[in-house]
Amino acid sequence: MGSAPVPGRSRPVDESPGTDPGRVPELLVLGCSVAAAAAAVAQPLVIGRTLDLLLGAGHAAAWIAASVALLVGEILLDCLTAFLTGRCTADWTAAVRSRALRGLLHAVPDTARAHPPGDVATRLTLNASDAGAAPAARAALVASLVTPAGALVALAVVDVWVAACVLVGLPALALLLKAFARDTGVSVGAYQRVQSDIASRLLETVEGAETIAAAGTAARERDRVLGPLAELGALGERMWRLHGRALATGGVLVPLLTVAAAAVGGLRLGAGVLSAGELLAVIRYAQLAAGIGGAATLVGAVARGRAARERTRALEELPALSYGTRTLSPGGPGTLELRGVRVSRGGVEVLRAERVTVPGGRTAAVVGRSGSGKSVLAAVAGRLTDPDRGRVLLDGTPLDALTRPSLRAEVGFAFARPELGDRTVAQAVAAGPRAVSPHQVRAAVRLAGADAFVHRLPQGYDTPLTDAPLSGGEYQRLGLARAFAHAGRVLVMDDATSSLDTATEHAVERAQQNSPVVVTRLVVTHRPSVAARADLVIWLEDGRVRAVGPHRRLWREAAYRAVFGAREEGGGASIGEGPAHGRAGALRGEARP
User: Fold this and answer.
1) Burial environment of residue 387 by CB neighbours within 10 A (0 to 12, 13 to 18, 19 or more)
2) What are the distances in angstroms from CA 559 to CA 177, 431, 443?
3) Which residues of 345-373 are buried (b: 16+ CB within 10 A; e: fewer)?
4) What is the pLDDT of residues 68-115, one digit of tens each?
5) How far is the C-alpha of 73 from the C-alpha of 42, rounded, in Å?
6) In whole angstroms, what is the distance from residue 376 CA to residue 381 CA?
């Protein structure tokens, strides 16, 4: 039975766990913030004592020095806190983004497709930034609560009655923060989802700009992209109202508590219980204790970071393939076998392959109508995904028993739209599971029929792809070159020559046949000429393997010819049949009229 991926993150056995910043940066921010808070709490008491000594003509030099030291220390600690906050945020943002990207790249492709490109971009940029800022915001929030608590204790030391007066109003501020945190968390999550929806729609529009312009549907497309904007605006307005309400309420309660503390302190001063310096300390401590209301901004940042982290974690925890510990012995022929394979999507069986064998060194064409399961078979054969039932074997070894490096070195892919990055031509072709020399790179480029146009580029092989004016077919040939450069035992080509004209495609195939490197090829194609040149054809219909055999024999069936849209004439002669037979005859055209 195949090892189908299960929900949850399954890290490949050969992958290192990654390096997260851990709690150290957050603890450093917390330590500096708490130290700055301690300096702020100590200042009123020291300054008040200094004032009393100055008014009483006492020796205040040491207390003045202490006041200055506390003030300077608080400033320096605030600067250090700001520096550590930036470093903590940068480190965590990078870690969150890297983990989410790693999860995405190692995910089973079918599960990754659930997230549109625009949604992925939003999660890896805006959401990762918000999530990365959360640890530092959390540390700052804890420190912001230390200041009121310390001020309240200090206030009780100076005068318990003033402390009791301030304490009466603190529960109202605490309830305000609790309600703000709850409502903000709900609003932020909804805001981020709508934001991601708009980004996905915008990216779809950019990718289809030519089609939209040709169809004259720009206005309708604009309305579609901006459709969720009203909801986004409403959610944003709600968040600002929550934030404003919290700040406004805190802005009213804090002065009231300060005035009440000053009034009680004044009465205590009149009664001779407090000195002028102590009254100054009392007023300042009342302000610090009531400062709990100012934590609303930090609460919002923590709530926003928590919601964003859930979104990035969804990418991080996409189901991934697990790998085995075996490697293939050198010199194997590359025989590929599918035994009892079943693949289902949404409860519907999309592929059934009871027993399909591609002999080593041979080429098998995979044909069928759109939606017949060709790409699913290619993905299973190259283990981009696992079957729900059955096994795929390479030279008798199950693919799921191989290590990841061994699997990717022996089974290569070439796609219709290869992703080559922004490197130079040579670097893009050389990138892969094997270390290849410049000579091998050039040989692979020649094999893909790309050498002529590469030499015409401004810097030849050293031309950055971003500066290379390549057509779709030329880009596709570079993708083929990369696949050829890293060829192992099996090469799966999923519509990898769809942008090539027939003559170029023929030249590439002929070059591969003459290559000294023998590779088993599985070629997904819509062209009958490709099927005719293959050693055997795997014919899919409605997700099932209807037949496996030579193209010439299958061409006798009208249903097979209909796969290519061929007209039924002359008793169903195979493409290339007539005066010439076999592969030579198959090279003469796409279809025989």
Assistant:
1) buried
2) 70, 42, 40
3) eeeeebbbbeebebebebbbbbbbeeebb
4) 998 999 899 999 999 999 999 999 999 999 999 999 988 888 788 888
5) 11
6) 8
